[in-house]
Write a structure and sequence with these properties.
about 230 residues; alpha/beta; Rossmann fold; four-stranded parallel beta sheet; 8 strands; globular
């Protein structure tokens, strides 16, 4: 039997996309209508934002571990968190040791895909905290992959779109056009791919519209969880 997957959810739209991806793509590996057992726990995003905004990543980690403990009680055997920003808490805790369960790191799933596609310079889009933080440098750097982020004004605008629109499931054509213009600028700066480093960005941007090939962190994490769940 596949391992029982636990989803430590933070924002609803990104977690829902990750959940749906596991369910939809599980059939290709396990047969019609099949997927691993999945349990999700969500602490309100507002509780996370108090600590994210103040830079208290240890308390962010405590919220993640609170979810992890509840998921462990539900019988999960493998943990994922479909939220890029909060992965900065991994710098404060040994999540596997604290939870007693294996975790998959979303940044590592993206780095593995970038390596497989032989990208050597990628753009990072996400919340301001994510773009300016260590989550992706800590995973891309050791793989020899350079990362580039937009300028400050673009970072602020992208952050606003994420928190005012995408986390609520609002998809605006004007925001899609704006993201594409930012990606075009990063392409001109030599990037070979773009990391959709907020789990809601794939609701807005895809390979069909992006000037650069997309590294969809949400779906990459879901696929990594599927593979890990069925691995003997």
């Amino acid at each position: 039997m596949p391992k029982h997957i636990g989803i430590v959810a933070v924002s609803a739209e990104g977690a829902a996309l990750c959940y749906r991806t596991i369910c939809a793509e599980g059939a290709a590996l396990l047969g019609p209508h099949a997927h691993p057992e999945i349990t999700m726990h969500t602490t309100p995003l507002s509780e996370y934002m108090v600590h994210i905004s103040s830079g208290d990543w240890k308390e962010v980690g405590n919220l993640m571990l609170r979810s992890a403990r509840k998921l462990s009680e539900a019988g999960v055997k493998l943990l994922i968190c479909p939220d890029n920003t909060v992965h900065q808490a991994f710098d404060c805790y040994d999540m596997e040791k604290e939870s007693g369960l294996p975790w998959l790191h979303i940044g590592q799933a993206v780095a593995n895909e970038a390596l497989s596609r032989r990208f050597r310079k990628v753009a990072i889009l996400g919340t301001r905290f994510l773009m300016e933080g260590p989550v992706y440098p800590s995973r891309l750097g050791p793989a020899g992959i350079e990362r580039l982020i937009p300028g400050k004004l673009d970072r602020d605008r992208i952050n606003q779109i994420i928190f005012d629109e995408l986390v609520y499931g609002r998809i605006e054509d004007s925001s899609r056009e704006y993201f594409c213009s930012v990606i075009e600028g990063l392409k001109l700066a030599g990037c070979e791919g773009v990391v959709l480093g907020c789990t809601e960005i794939p609701l807005l941007i895809s390979d069909e519209v992006s000037p650069l090939p997309c590294l969809d962190s949400t779906r990459l994490l879901a696929r990594a969880a599927l593979k890990a769940a069925i691995k003997e």
